[in-house]
Specification:
5 domains, Alanine--tRNA ligase, ligase, about 850 residues, Elongation Factor Tu (Ef-tu), domain 3, nine-stranded mixed sheet, ATP-binding, six-stranded antiparallel β-barrel, cytoplasm, BirA Bifunctional Protein, domain 2, about 40% helix, alpha+beta, about 25% strand
Length: about 850
Amino acid sequence: MTSQEIRQQFLDFFKSKEHLIVPSAPIVLKDDPTLMFSNSGMTQFKDYFLGYKEPKASRIADTQKCLRVSGKHNDLDDVGRDTYHHTMFEMLGNWSFGDYFKKEAISWAWELLTEVYGIPKENLYVTIFEGDEKENLERDNEAYNYWKEYISEDRIINGNKKDNFWEMGASGPCGPCSEIHVDLRSEEEKAKVSGLELVNNDHPQVVEIWNLVFMQFNRKADGTLENLPAKHIDTGMGFERLCMALQQKESNYDTDVFTPLIAKVEELSGKKYTGILTDEKDIAIRVVVDHIRAVSFAIADGQLPSNGGAGYVIRRILRRGISYAYRFLDRKEPFLYQLVGVLQEQMGKFFPELEKQGTLVTEVIKSEEESFLRTIETGLIRVEKLIQQTIYEGKKVLPTEEVFELYDTYGFPDDLTRIIAEEKGLTIDETGFEQALNKQKQRSKADSAQKVYDWVTLEEKPENFVGYDKIESETYITRYRKVENKDGEFYQVVLSESPFYPEGGGQIGDKGTLENATESFEVLETKKENGLIISLINGLPKDAGAIFYAKVNAADRKNSQANHSVTHLLHEALRDVLGTHVEQKGSYVGPDYLRFDFSHFSKMTDEELKLVEDKVNAKIKESIALQEFRSIPIQEALDRGAMALFGEKYGDNVRMIQFGTSMELCGGTHVKNTSEIGHFKIVSESSAAAGIRRIEAISGDKSAEYFKNLEKQITELSQLLKSKDIVKSIEKLIEENTSLKSEVEAFKKEKAKGEIGDWKNAYKHKGDKQLLVKKTSLDAGSVKDIVFQLKREIPTSVTVILSDNDGKPMITVGVSDDLASSYQAGTIVKDLAREIQGGGGGNPGFATAGGKNIDGLENAYQKALEL
């Protein structure tokens, strides 16, 4: 049975049990402040469990893309070193929202595994929650009694809270669970050791394949449990492990989920995969085929590699794969991107985003590979210099600070530094490196640390967003909670009627005030969490139940919505000018400016930018009225021609914004007429990532301000140049400057010629070698020319020149070729540069260093005389 058939059979089975089959949600979460990625199948249904939203059906089944690389659920370091851990994996799941519970969940799980998939009953074990006195939770006898109908009691195992009480995080929906484990060992092995002893003991062939979670509690921030409004079923079956069991393999990597990718790696690398757990080559291949899946799905869902947040996680995964390929597969050129096509063939049918975004995914991965391989090559040079300096100083351990800088600042893999050092008989300070790494993590945690208390509910009432129609509203607080972070103590409030737009769709959240006759509070930000619009205020009202007046900052809202509306016009104009391959890949909409990322594979020309700008401004001048469809069936909106963005999660009914021929699904605030935008001006166009261009622009008040400042600069330039023809005057200045530069260069060369003779006579004999240490005020270019001439003409020589041109200290070292094997110019200059609080480098024959402390040149001079 192929993996595609296994997946389809699961969905068909639960469809026969009256479940609605829904597509996987994006792997990247954009509207959940508690998670970066979907780390389980239940993530997209969290609002249903908490009662914030009504589910589209009471029974649902799906296969969900999951990523476990951060936070509590982090499998990254295990990937490649065993047979069953992955960064990205599929979670097959069936869900009941207040419908069926334990009896049906257990019955159908057993039917599917034993009767449909045909797993021998004697190979299965189940666990139930044994209870927990501290939590005042009893043993799950209900599940036990249901399981007794299908499996012998000696195969029902009590499990502790760690294994059999499922929690999504520190707070949120949770409940007891029942795991199903399968024993895939041979009959001989089973005879030696019972599977009972190996369940939940990390045995590679006695593994959990399905977890049935009986969701009935909500974990509050203070750690206490409360009953959910209704009981739910949340199951998750590891697709890759299920394939291993059904295809009778000993490793997930031996199933057809991975074998096509492994075959491609073998073809591209010339290395043969043997499946040995401890073989570094095989570990590397497992890492590569696992990581390409995670990265490809993340990019397809809209998350590009970057230096922060979720983008940093994706970049880290990709770089880990590149590093393993570089070190153990001898791949010095990009090659991971060539695996994307294989992945599309395998999974494109079930996950169409891979087909749709295939070109983008391929180009982004290729570009990231090229960039990181350059980082590795540059790092190798830095490591070599570091090793030479360490040997020169007679030490055996590379300095921790610089090893960590290579890793942290330049992204050079620390294990690669370790390998190269060991080849030279050196080591790194493992303890010091770990301490530096932990300090960095603690700093990062401290910067983002936030303590969130439980909600205090004043009234159970549906909250209403009125911000599309008004920016001021009479309201009252329905719930509040305290928040503590590094900036102090604040309160999050939910309002009965909120005019404040919550951050989303690229648009920043509204700020403003919440006030009544006796108190006034600043609204610092507004976000959305679990369906609630939450505004952050700088204090707690004395009477939280009083009537308040909520006021949005009118100027900021006016400018933000102008910028948001213009992004829609910009999107359409880009598609008109560049082609329909253009798709929005990210945006920022604030009151000061807008940023728009889009798919396109080359830099835009000045002519294209002007044409786009003109098209947008033409739409503004047309005074096109907004057509807003607050709640329209998504298929109807798409049939009308509305743009839907990949990686966004849409409901059955959506909001559509239309300005003439521009139609997009959007939840943001907008102008009532394009004439309100005023004017649109592109400020810059640049690369955001491979295949992604970025436009930054302004409109409205900021656009008017831009042209006003431009006019002022032109007036000042005209006065300065004493001419109204500014272009002609500047051209004349450039000509004069070029002529003067030529004269200065000629003068420098004459001066340098005069110096060379004196410098040749100043060398001092040190045994059979010659040393010149000289101070000068010549510029760096002249010094370089002279040093290269001297190292050619003066044999067995070391030349050290200390210059203070323009008040900046600089040290230049030249070593004649016949001494370069024993005297390293780079090592010498690095040692001397400490005296001027600087650094630099070069090659064995020539090196330079700049610094900050010009007074240190005298110490450097004395030190150089001792060479």
